[in-house]
Design a protein that fits this description.
It is a single chain. The chain contains 18 helices and 21 strands. It is an alpha+beta fold. The protein folds into two domains: 84-182 and 207-364 and 442-498, Glutathione synthase, substrate-binding domain superfamily, eukaryotic (Rossmann fold, 3-Layer(aba) Sandwich), CATH 3.40.50.1760; 365-426, Glutathione synthase lid domain (Dna Ligase, domain 1, 2-Layer Sandwich), CATH 3.30.1490.50. Helix 9 packs across helix 10 (244-258), helix 11 (267-273) crosses helix 12 and helix 17 (372-380) packs across helix 18 (401-413). The model is unreliable at 1-22 (pLDDT under 50). The structure holds adenosine-5'-diphosphate and magnesium ion (2 copies).
C-alpha cells in the first residue's frame, strides 16, 4: 500500500539496528498490528480524555443535542492514532496557505470576473443565482469592504501515483473544525507519549495545532479594527447544530483571551431582530455587530424562505465585517476554482511568478462542461472524474457510473443544465489501515485521508494585518466511501504523524 507506510514488524527490526535512538527517524507502523487488548486500553483513555476536554459533538440519538448545549454529548468521531503524512507535503500545504488567502482577496475585488465566470451557472442554479444577485446589488451601490476577513481551509489529497499534493477545494465560508481539530492533535500527542513503549512513536512528530487560536486571533483583530468596544461578534448558525462545540471553542477563546462577547443567531432570528442604522451599523436584538462569522448560510437548506435571504442581504449591506463577504463566498465556489486553474488566469491576480507556480502545482485537472474532449473521455472512463455542482457541506458530488449517466442525460436534454457542474480529475490517495472510533466503539478499517490547512487573512484598506497559515485538519474516511463527511458518519477527525 502506501510507500511511507511500513509494516510494524519492520519497525521493530529497524529499532534493533538503531540502538540508542529513542524513536525512529521515519517510524511508520500498522495500527492493525496492535493487539486488541492494547487497542482497548488506548481507546478507553482516548474516550475519557475526549469527554473531559470537550472533544465532543451532539449525539444524534438525543433529540435536544443540536439545540441545547450540555445535553446529549458524545465524543467526536476520531481516529485512534495519527495518520502518517510526508513532512515535505505538509510543509508545502502550509506554505501555500497565505498565497491562497491573498488570491481570494484579489479575486473578491474583481466583481466582473466573479459575475462573468458564474454567468452560465447563474441561469441554471437558483442558489448560486441568489448569491450573485446580492453580489450585483453590492456592485450597483458601489459597496466597499475596507476591512476584509477570511477564515479559510484549503483541502488536499495526496495522489498516490504521482506523489502530488492536489487541492480538493478551498473553503471560504464556514470552514469547520478549527476547534475540535486542535484537540485531536493534542490527544494524539498525549497517547503517543503515554503508550510510547508499545507504539515507539515520537509525539513531537504530531505538529501542534493552533487553528482555534489563529482563527480567534483573526476574529479578535477584526473586531479591534471595527473599533466599537460595545459591539459583539455574531456567529450565524443553523437552528440545529450538532457540531456546536467546535464553534463554542472559538467563542470561548474570544471570551477568555480577548474579552469579546459573541452571540449566536440563526438567519431567521437575524431577519426578525436585525436592523440597519443610518450609518450602516448592523443591530441584532439591539446589539451592534462588529463581525458576522458565518457557520451557516452556505447551503440552499439554510434558506428555507425569503426571510433568510433578506437577512443575508441585510448583513451584506451593513458596515459589519463579514466573514465571508458575498464576494469571498463566491470566490470559494467550485466554478471559480475551475476558472482559476485555466492557463493565464492566476496571472491576472498575482504578480509573483514563484507564488503562481506554487499554487499551480496544487491544481488538479479541472474542466467546465463545454470541453467536449473531456466530456467524451469522462463518459468513457467515468471513474477517473468527479462531477461537482456549486455546493458546500459534503454529499453533493457525483462519482463513477453516475458521472457517465449524468453526462449522457445532460447531453440528451441539451439544455443549459450542464453549467451547474464542473468536472475534476479524481484523486486517488494511498489506502492505509487505521482504527476509527465512533460511539465509543473502535473499528479497524482501510482508509484514505484528506488534509486541510487553515488560513487566516485580515486586511484594512492597504494594510495586511494578518496573513497566516494556522493549524490543520486531517480527515480520514473508509476507502470504500466516495465522500461522506464527518457528520455523515463515514469520516473521522484525525491528525498527522510526519514521516
Ligand atoms: P464540499 O464543499 O461539499 O466539501 P468537496 O469538493 O470537498 O466539496 O468534495 C467533498 C468530498 O468529496 C471531499 O472531501 C473528498 O472526500 C471527495 N472529493 C472531492 N473531490 C475529489 C477528487 N477530485 N478526487 C477524489 N475525491 C474527491
Ligand atoms: Mg467545501
Ligand atoms: Mg470539502
Amino acid at each position: 500500500s502506501a510507500p511511507f507506510f511500513l509494516r510494524c514488524g519492520r519497525v521493530v527490526e529497524q529499532m534493533e539496528t538503531q540502538k540508542g535512538n529513542d524513536f525512529l527517524q521515519k517510524p511508520s507502523f500498522d495500527p492493525h498490528s496492535i493487539d486488541q487488548e492494547l487497542v482497548q486500553k488506548i481507546a478507553y483513555d482516548a474516550l475519557v480524555w475526549s469527554s473531559l476536554h470537550g472533544l465532543v459533538v451532539g449525539d444524534r440519538n438525543s433529540q435536544r443535542s443540536g439545540k441545547v448545549p450540555g445535553v446529549g454529548m458524545v465524543h467526536a468521531p476520531i481516529a485512534l492514532l495519527p495518520m502518517s503524512f510526508p513532512e515535505s507535503h505538509w510543509k508545502q500545504a502550509c506554505e501555500v496557505a497565505p498565497i491562497f488567502n491573498e488570491l481570494v482577496d484579489r479575486v473578491s475585488l474583481d466583481g466582473n470576473f466573479l459575475q462573468e465566470s458564474l454567468s452560465r451557472t447563474k441561469k441554471v442554479d437558483t442558489f448560486t443565482s441568489r448569491l450573485l444577485d446580492i453580489h450585483s446589488k453590492m456592485l450597483e451601490i458601489n459597496k466597499k469592504e475596507d476591512i476584509r476577513l477570511g477564515l479559510h481551509r484549503s483541502d488536499y489529497m495526496l495522489d498516490e501515483q504521482t506523489k502530488l499534493l492536489l487541492q480538493i477545494e478551498l473553503n471560504t465560508i464556514s470552514s469547520s473544525f478549527p476547534g475540535l481539530s486542535c484537540l485531536v492533535s493534542e490527544l494524539h500527542r498525549l497517547l503517543l507519549l503515554q503508550f510510547r513503549e508499545h507504539l515507539l512513536l515520537d509525539p513531537e512528530r504530531v505538529p501542534r495545532n493552533n487553528a482555534v487560536n489563529g482563527f480567534a486571533e483573526a476574529l479578535a483583530k477584526a473586531w479591534t479594527e471595527y473599533n466599537n468596544p460595545r459591539a459583539v461578534i455574531m456567529v450565524v448558525v443553523q437552528p440545529e447544530e450538532r457540531n456546536m462545540y467546535d464553534q463554542h471553542w472559538l467563542c470561548a477563546v474570544l471570551k477568555e483571551q480577548y474579552q469579546i462577547t459573541t452571540i449566536r443567531k440563526s438567519l431567521a432570528e437575524i431577519d426578525a431582530t436585525g436592523e440597519l442604522q443610518a450609518d450602516g451599523t448592523l443591530l441584532v436584538g439591539g446589539e451592534a455587530v462588529a463581525v458576522v462569522y458565518f457557520r451557516a448560510g452556505y447551503a440552499p437548506t439554510d434558506y428555507p424562505s425569503e426571510f433568510e435571504w433578506r437577512a443575508r442581504l441585510l448583513m451584506e449591506q451593513s458596515s459589519a465585517i463579514k466573514c465571508p463577504s458575498i464576494a469571498y463566498h463566491l470566490a470559494g465556489t467550485k466554478k471559480i476554482q475551475q476558472e482559476l486553474a485555466k492557463p493565464g488566469v492566476l496571472e491576472r491576480f498575482l504578480e509573483n511568478k514563484d507564488d503562481i507556480s506554487k499554487l499551480r502545482r496544487c491544481f488538479a485537472g479541472l474542466w467546465s462542461l463545454n470541453d467536449l474532449q473531456i466530456i467524451k473521455d469522462a463518459i468513457e472512463r467515468p471513474g477517473l472524474y468527479v462531477m461537482k455542482p456549486q455546493r458546500e457541506g459534503g454529499g453533493n458530488n457525483i462519482y463513477g457510473d453516475d458521472v457517465k449517466e449524468t453526462l449522457l442525460r445532460l447531453h440528451v436534454t441539451g439544455n443549459q443544465e450542464d453549467a451547474a457542474y464542473i468536472l475534476m480529475q479524481r484523486i486517488f490517495p494511498a489506502v492505509s489501515p487505521a482504527i476509527l472510533m465512533r460511539d465509543g466503539v473502535s473499528h479497524r478499517d482501510q482508509t484514505i485521508s484528506e488534509l486541510g490547512v487553515y488560513g487566516a487573512y485580515l486586511r484594512n484598506k492597504t494594510k495586511v494585518i494578518m496573513n497566516d497559515n494556522c493549524g490543520y485538519l486531517m480527515r480520514t474516511k473508509v476507502s470504500s466511501s466516495n465522500e461522506g463527511g464527518v457528520a455523515a458518519g463515514f469520516a473521522v477527525l484525525d491528525s498527522i504523524y510526519l514521516v
